[in-house]
Write a structure and sequence with these properties.
Oligomer: homodimer
CATH class of the largest domain in chain A: Alpha Beta
Order of helices and strands of chain A: HEHHEHEHHEEEHEHEEH
Low-confidence stretches of chain A: 1-9
Mean pLDDT of chain A: 91
Number of strands of chain A: 9
Strand content of chain A: 15-25%
């Protein structure tokens, strides 16, 4: 194996951003329930993060809330969505329309986060030429011809583990700047591409460890 | 809202354990490829974690590898599986046999981690009474009667966000000690229960933040 530059590891800022994402989901939830004002103590109770950590996390991005009053839920919600870059629409390409991919596209998570799946690719002849939620499924073999790279902001990659690296490499060459994939497999991120991974086996390992 | 004790936040040890889980997946992968010996530099190249961090992480749990030689892949694999508590079988109950739950049960992730789904519960009459991969699907309404609590080590909860808290509470009362759920929603963990969450909206928020 040849030596290559290591990718940066998940750093402190990423942990803060992940927590801010959980504050945003809590604000969404409270807003839907009609709550107008909340305190950092409410974050502590709901998300299990201490009040002081909530305040420190928020202070990274500006001054929020009113001393002695708390946070205006809808205002803070919009401010944090802006911090996370979720206040404008992003176009998503979904790679893999099989089991997990099709669950994803029917989920509320994308729409709630202003993410719009605009293209789908799959290698299964049973899917190619069809459509999901009105979005046509293209042949993965024609990715280079069919991907609307100028329009795509990020990719959701729901393919089998052995295929992930190849898919990420092709997306990188086409100029796609970000991807999230779900396989239990490390990939090398192409230069100028942000690649994140959600791996259920990692959480399962943490769970069995904590259970002893 | 009443005040309650905050749950502990994800701490340093959990981060180490998550990284150790990724080392394990890399070892699995190298073992499958027939690699016998590896170095911490290989971890750096594959998982993007610096060699020194790999060494520090492993040093938390013992002395591994041979100076000047490296790590024996299959030996380190078994040692880390032991550290994570994955060297013995765990019985899993799956709550929710719909879209995501059914994808999960067909995935390799459980078996690779020595986790065996032994019971399934669902509230959908279309699933109740049927079976998935030979495992009967029970009625969620009969959880208290049908759950084989003595035998269950942990739960995988794949139900809609508004239902997660109720399901976790019921599992906690039945003595289930651990659960992993996937909704974009915080839950209060019952005492003596470890509850982990994988929330795709959190990763999507990190991705859009990093893309700017």
């Amino acid at each position: 194996m040849t030596r290559s530059k290591p990718r940066p590891r998940v750093d402190r800022k990423n942990l803060i951003i992940r927590r801010v994402s959980t504050y945003l989901r809590t604000l969404d939830h409270l807003q839907a329930k009609g709550v107008g004002i909340m305190s950092s103590r409410d974050f502590e109770k709901i998300e299990g993060v201490t009040q002081s950590l909530v305040r420190r996390d928020l202070a990274e991005f500006g001054t929020f809330g009113v001393r002695g009053v708390g946070y205006h839920v809808s205002e803070l919600r919009d401010q944090l969505a802006h911090v996370l870059g979720l206040d404008r629409r992003r176009n998503v390409v979904l790679i893999g329309a099989g089991g997990f991919g099709s669950v994803l596209i029917h989920s509320e998570s994308f729409k709630k986060r202003n993410l719009e799946v605009v293209q789908i690719f799959d290698q299964d002849p049973a899917h190619i030429g069809g459509s999901i939620e009105g979005i046509p499924v293209h042949d993965m073999a024609a990715l280079e011809q069919e991907l609307d790279a100028d329009r795509i902001d990020m990719a959701i990659v729901a393919v089998a583990p052995p295929e992930v690296q190849g898919v990420i490499d092709r997306l990188g060459r086409l100029g796609v700047r970000g991807a999230l994939y779900f396989a239990s497999r490390a990939v090398r991120a192409p230069e100028n591409m942000v690649v994140l991974n959600m791996d259920i086996t990692v959480e399962l390992g943490l769970l069995t460890y904590l259970l002893g």
